[in-house]
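Hi R.,

As promised on Friday, here is the backbone we talked about, encoded as structure tokens. Could you run it through your design pipeline when you get a chance and send me back a sequence?
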């Protein structure tokens, strides 16, 4: 008989600089409680050259694939996950609401081409999952038994409530309450910097709530993501955002808008340690 899942400590994110120079945010108390490593990587510590300068983890942006491969290896090493490099899952992100289960809908890159999806749920130890970002909202959800989801929520994903869908699917699959899961929101473009126009802002206000609007023409993606999570049963105390805006922090993170659409991708990584 397996032991009951622990009550997770409330989420927090702390900056770490690994010995190989890679910077990332993680929750050490979460790791101690359930053995799941989470990380939001930055751009410091990588080998990519301008305009991708730094730890670019995306192969679809025009960067040298050899540099990206080195960067991915460095990122896994920084997180203590080098041993699981062959099991690494990276989906083909398409701004959808599709969430797949690792081992069923989506296999490691070393075994099969990546299917299209924007969320991956994983309940297998030793299988790291990486999604890539530059302004869109990275979300990592961890259940008390250590199983997790990594989600890419840009504007289209937010409108389709992908983070809420992933939380429901993860909690449902594990037979656990959504309110018991920790939710981590990584670096993304903030509402002050994200001008989308009045029509789009109004559609979010009607769909989610007035706090999605920042002024009349700017959208808070984080507010929309929080609504989706809370409507899916998340506990507000268990939703933690690092509070960093990518567009305002291009020394540390990539920003699609700040860098004229040509830039690398930082990552959200999670893995259950065996
Ligand atoms: Zn900002």
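Update: got your reply. Pasting your designed sequence below so it's all in one thread:
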């Amino acid at each position: 008989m397996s032991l009951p899942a622990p009550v997770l400590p409330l989420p927090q994110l702390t900056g770490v600089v690994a010995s190989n120079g890679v910077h990332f945010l993680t929750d050490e108390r979460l790791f101690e409680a359930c053995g799941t490593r989470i990380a939001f990587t930055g751009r410091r510590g990588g080998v990519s050259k301008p305009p991708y300068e730094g730890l670019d983890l995306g192969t679809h942006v025009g960067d040298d694939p050899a540099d990206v491969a080195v960067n991915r290896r460095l990122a896994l090493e920084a997180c203590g996950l080098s041993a699981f490099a062959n099991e690494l899952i990276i989906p083909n992100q398409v701004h959808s609401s599709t969430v797949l289960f690792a081992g069923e809908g989506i296999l490691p890159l070393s075994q099969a081409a990546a299917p299209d999806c924007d969320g991956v749920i994983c309940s297998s130890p030793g299988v790291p999952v990486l999604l890539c970002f530059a302004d869109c909202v990275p979300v990592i959800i961890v259940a008390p038994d250590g199983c997790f989801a990594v989600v890419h929520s840009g504007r289209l994903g937010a409108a389709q409530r992908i983070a809420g869908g992933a939380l429901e699917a993860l909690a449902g699959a594990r037979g656990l309450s959504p309110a018991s899961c920790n939710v981590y929101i990584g670096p993304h473009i903030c509402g002050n910097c994200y001008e989308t126009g009045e029509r789009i802002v109004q559609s979010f206000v009607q769909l989610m709530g007035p706090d999605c609007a920042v002024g009349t023409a700017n959208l808070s993606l984080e507010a929309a993501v929080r609504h989706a999570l809370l409507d899916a049963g998340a506990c507000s105390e268990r939703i933690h955002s690092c509070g960093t805006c990518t567009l305002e922090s291009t020394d540390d993170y990539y920003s699609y808008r700040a860098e004229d659409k040509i830039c690398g991708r930082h990552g959200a990584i999670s893995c259950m340690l065996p």
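One thing I noticed while checking it: Residues 133 and 188 are 8 Å apart (CA to CA).

Thanks again,
M.
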